[in-house]
Input
Amino acid sequence: EPEVTQTPSHQVTQMGQEVILRCVPISNHLYFYWYRQILGQKVEFLVSFYNNEISEKSEIFDDQFSVERPDGSNFTLKIRSTKLEDSAMYFCASGVDRLGFFGPGTRLTVL
Amino acid sequence: GENVEQHPSTLSVQEGDSAVIKCTYSDSASNYFPWYKQELGKRPQLIIDIRSNVGEKKDQRIAVTLNKTAKHFSLHITETQPEDSAVYFCAAQYMNYGGSQGNLIFGKGTKLSVKP
Output
C-alpha cells in the first residue's frame, strides 16, 4: 500500500537557523497538508496546498514558514529562522477526498 | 473558524468493556468527521470517518455516530482490548468535493487505557 514518506525523521538545529522538512505525498493525491504536534498536545493545522497554491493557512503559519512543491513528487516546509517554540513533530499529510494518510513525521528539535 | 471540543481527556476501562469518546464542533458547514488513533511516537492513523449525510457507521468493534442538529459526534469502541490503548483524536472538516478543502481541525485527544 502506498504511504506518505517524510525526511528526515529527526532534525536538530540551532535557534535562528533555517530548516527544510521534506515530504513525498502519495502520487495520485491532490491535497497536501502540514500539521505540527507539540509533545503531548493535539495535532495543529499549519497549511493546506491544492492546485499548486496555498488554499488555507493557520495563524501559526506566519512569515517564517513557507511551502513548496518544487517538482511532481516533493512537498516541502521551510522554516526560515527557527525559534525554540518551533520544536515539535511535523506531519505531512495528503488525500484525495479524505485525509487518511499522514506521514511518519519529522521531529524538529531547536536548541 | 471551526472549534472542536473532545471529552474526556483520559479514559480508563477494563478489557471487554465499552469506551465512548465524545466531540462537539462549532461550524455547521463541517461535513466530514474522521477519528484517528495515535500510538506513542507514531503518526495518527485514520480508523473510521463519517460524512454529514450519514448518522451512524460501524466497522467491526468501532462505531461512530453523528448528530448534526446538536453538532455532536461520538466514537464507540466495544469489547475493548489492551491494544486499543492509545490517544484518540476526533476532527472536523469542511470538504468541498472537487475544490479546495477547509482545514482539518482536531480535538485535544483522549488517552484511552484498557486494563487487562
